[in-house]
Design a protein that fits this description.
By secondary structure, the protein is of the alpha+beta class. It contains 14 helices and 22 strands. 34% of the residues lie in helices and 26% in strands. The two termini are 37 Å apart. The structure holds glutamic acid.
Length: 450
């Protein structure tokens, strides 16, 4: 899943899109493209390769204030200019960008070919534009809604119609999409970093939700056409946090940020008087925490390793049986949920697909699932039964560093809480608290001399 940016407003859309796509580069991609609605015409520029290569072929006279952009990470069809997004239908009236995978695309494609449609790419995404065009009879939202009902798979999509110049429709299922609310300008993006330079007011879409933006308005709907009143969230990050700030690589910058990020995971969460920790977001009473007989941590990638450390800490210090399991296994295996087991899902982004789906399945089976996440307002924190933010600030590098150490910090505090409720004495608790404090001081010194 790669990047989406959409813009409606007074600025030159191509600039907003190229800058937004640039900020999504860190996710990795193989091709990029934009489509701008320019004086009643669609102008699509796309190619395989980097954003800087794309910028070179964007004509200087590309005006237009509404547009969509994409960075592709190919899943269906080779890395070619033709397979890059945006994609269009035969008439060129519908244009869209898509993140995700449409599993039943071949069946739909065959049917559309029988109906006379011609395809020019090998992607699964192109079928969506043809499908929307085939359903369109004057209302873009309706055509999108009717079309996505037929799709099986995951998608974050941004769509435009040539004859409706200042409007973008976005729809989400299993692939993140966020709406950015500006001053007489609106944005759609797959990731807030793409639009943070312009606005910090965002609305996160849930699965099976649709958004319609114009420069001055936005409306959100569920798939049953009911309009939703969704909460506007404020992105708590500053723009400098997503810049390299003198470092050659984001990863290097994030390694050096560890003293502050660990401190943020720690601060306000130690109760020295009680020689224990305090994690308010767990949403559990001490009595409920005392009843926990087993802890299961579910995660993927680096978060899985942090979860392993967490399980070792909990088992060895709090003496509660604890284990870690890969989210991709839990998601597909029909897990057994026991009422006295407490589940933690760990994800830096809060959007990791396997972890999210594993969490949903565990919740369906009655589990209480708590999140350990970084991105405030992302899906896992919103859908879990409680949890802890690690407050690392944006982690742009794909190889996780500061989020990993902050996740472990949170597991230390959790372990302290659980252990103190059980056998750990006040004095022993205090020893752990002092050791953690000493660790923080030494960490700061260590990074100062580097
Ligand atoms: N499945 C689509 C393709 O291969 C979208 C991939 C992506 O999410 O970038 O073009």
């Amino acid at each position: 899943m790669c990047g989406i940016v959409g813009y409606c407003g007074p600025k030159k859309a191509s600039e907003v899109l190229l800058e937004g796509l640039k900020r999504l580069e860190y996710r990795g991609y193989d091709s990029a493209g934009i489509c701008i609605s320019d004086k009643g015409k669609f102008r699509t520029i796309k190619r395989k390769g980097k954003i800087k290569d794309l910028r070179e072929i964007v004509p200087g006279d590309l005006e237009g204030n509404t547009g969509i952009g994409h960075t592709r990470w190919a899943t269906h069809g080779e890395v070619t200019d033709a397979n890059a997004h945006p994609h269009s239908d035969d008439s060129g009236k519908i244009v869209l960008v898509h993140n995700g995978i449409i599993e039943n695309f071949q069946t739909i494609k065959n049917r559309l070919i029988d109906e006379g449609h011609t395809f020019i790419s090998d992607t699964d995404s192109e079928v969506i534009s043809h499908l929307i065009a085939s359903r369109y009879s004057g209302n873009l939202e309706d055509a999108v809604r009717e079309s996505v009902f037929l799709l099986k798979g995951t998608y974050g999509i941004a769509v435009m119609h040539r004859d409706i110049p200042n409007k973008i429709v976005g729809v989400r299922n299993g692939s993140p999409l966020v709406l950015g609310i500006g001053n007489s300008e609106m944005f759609i993006a797959s990731d807030v970093t793409a639009i943070m330079a312009h606005t910090k007011q965002v609305i996160y879409l849930e699965d099976k939700e649709l958004v319609v933006i114009t420069p001055d308005t936005y409306k959100t709907f569920n798939f049953n056409e009911q309009e939703l009143q969704k909460k506007i969230e404020n992105i708590g990050w500053d723009l400098e946090q997503i810049e390299k700030d003198g470092h050659e690589f984001f990863m290097e910058k994030e390694i050096f940020e560890q003293p502050e990020s660990i401190l943020r995971a720690f601060v306000g969460r130690i109760d020295k008087d009680g020689a224990t920790g305090h994690l308010g977001g767990l949403n559990m009473t001490p009595a409920e925490l005392l009843n926990v007989k087993r802890i299961q941590i579910v995660a993927a990638g680096t978060s899985f390793y942090a979860g392993m450390v967490g399980a070792y800490l909990i088992e060895s210090i709090a003496r509660i049986p604890a284990s870690t399991e890969l989210a991709s296994e839990v998601r597909y295996k029909n897990p057994v949920v026991q009422p006295d087991t407490l589940y933690f899902v760990v994800s830096q982004s809060g959007e990791t697909a396997d972890t999210l789906y594993a969490m949903k399945e565990l919740q369906r089976k009655g589990a209480r699932v708590l999140g350990v996440c970084n991105v405030v307002g992302s899906t896992i924190p919103r859908k879990s039964d409680g949890g802890v933010y690690i407050h690392s600030g944006p982690e742009i590098a794909v190889a996780s560093t500061k989020a990993f150490t902050s996740q472990i910090t949170v597991f230390y505090i959790l372990t302290l809480i659980l252990a103190r409720m059980r056998h750990l004495s006040f004095e022993e608790g205090l020893r752990i608290v002092s050791a953690l404090e000493r660790f923080l001081e030494n960490l700061k010194k260590f990074f100062q001399i580097l």
